[in-house]
Amino acid sequence: MMKLRVQLQCKNLHEYLKELSPEILDSLYNHPATCLAVYRELPSLAKNYVMRMLFLDHPLPQAAVALWVKKDSQKGMDLVEILSFLFQLSFSTLGRDYSVEGMSESLLTFLQHLREFGLVFQRKRKSRRYYPTRLAITLAAGVTVNAASGSASTALGATPGTGDTGFIVVETNYRVYAYTNSELQIALVALFSEMLYRFPNVVVAQVTRESVQQAIANGITAQQIIHFLRTRAHPVMLKRTPILPPTIKDQIMLWELEKDRLQFTEGVLYNQFLSQADFEVLRDRAQGLGVLVWQNPAHRVMVVTPHGHSEVKRFWKRQKSHT
């Protein structure tokens, strides 16, 4: 008996959405999660949204989406609602529970399908909370893990249009080699590194203290930079354990911690007390109100919060009028 082999060809999210009608696309774009999922595959870099694009650049495989979406849409379910929910799952946090409150009946039915596939976890079928599983989150990223070798690979390639499955090589001397011609990816690498050389097929950059701290000042976290380098690692780096050199990871984290050595708190300064007793009376009052930020009894100086300043000031005036 001959067995038929069926090979399913996957396309990225952008190609899948091209097949939808304009009416469905207009409805989809009303949902923030859909906009983010689509925006991360656009070829041009938008400055206002680069922080969101930086680590949401994971194409959704059409085969995984179409497996449920097309069948359920044929059963009368809302295609826009189903796709929007799948996009939201791709942005969910592993281990966090989410409420089913506000879901329509068709979406609750679709949720049970996902539960059967192992994409969400519910303690009971009628439970009002559900947990997205790792499979649901990594499904949108197109990432598969080889348990035998411990290596990870990207199912559909890194960025639409580049044809690269992984293009970044990071050395222990903080050199970054990006084997790509994508202007978008080069611009993203430049957000946290200093560009040194650019050749037809490769860009050489240097991760420095200044470049990382500048990125942090612009709203990028150290964990996001590390995640970016790891998820776009070249196949050569994927053979390493760990993928990213520990010295690079630790140093980027330390550079971020440097900015947290000082914390700024607004306040109102009180000084020039005529006696230690006056200082202690006002300080105790501020402590009692819970508005004392800082004190230096030796120099008779203290700082209170702005919202507590008026109350402390009134108390001090009453205190002075009685003495």
From TrEMBL:
Component of the 7-subunit TFIIH core complex composed of XPB/ERCC3, XPD/ERCC2, GTF2H1, GTF2H2, GTF2H3, GTF2H4 and GTF2H5, which is active in NER. The core complex associates with the 3-subunit CDK-activating kinase (CAK) module composed of CCNH/cyclin H, CDK7 and MNAT1 to form the 10-subunit holoenzyme (holo-TFIIH) active in transcription. Its main location: nucleus. Keywords: DNA damage, DNA repair, Nucleus, Transcription, Transcription regulation. One of its GO terms (molecular function) is double-stranded DNA binding. InterPro entries: Tfb2_C, TFIIH_p52/Tfb2. It comes from Cyprinus carpio. This is General transcription factor IIH subunit 4. It is found in: Nucleus. Component of the general transcription and DNA repair factor IIH (TFIIH) core complex which is involved in general and transcription-coupled nucleotide excision repair (NER) of damaged DNA. Component of the general transcription and DNA repair factor IIH (TFIIH) core complex, which is involved in general and transcription-coupled nucleotide excision repair (NER) of damaged DNA and, when complexed to CAK, in RNA transcription by RNA polymerase II. In NER, TFIIH acts by opening DNA around the lesion to allow the excision of the damaged oligonucleotide and its replacement by a new DNA fragment. In transcription, TFIIH has an essential role in transcription initiation. GO terms for biological process: nucleotide-excision repair; transcription by RNA polymerase II. The lineage of its organism: Eukaryota, Metazoa, Chordata, Craniata, Vertebrata. Residues 250-317 form the Transcription factor Tfb2 C-terminal domain. GO terms for cellular component: transcription factor TFIIH core complex; transcription factor TFIIH holo complex.
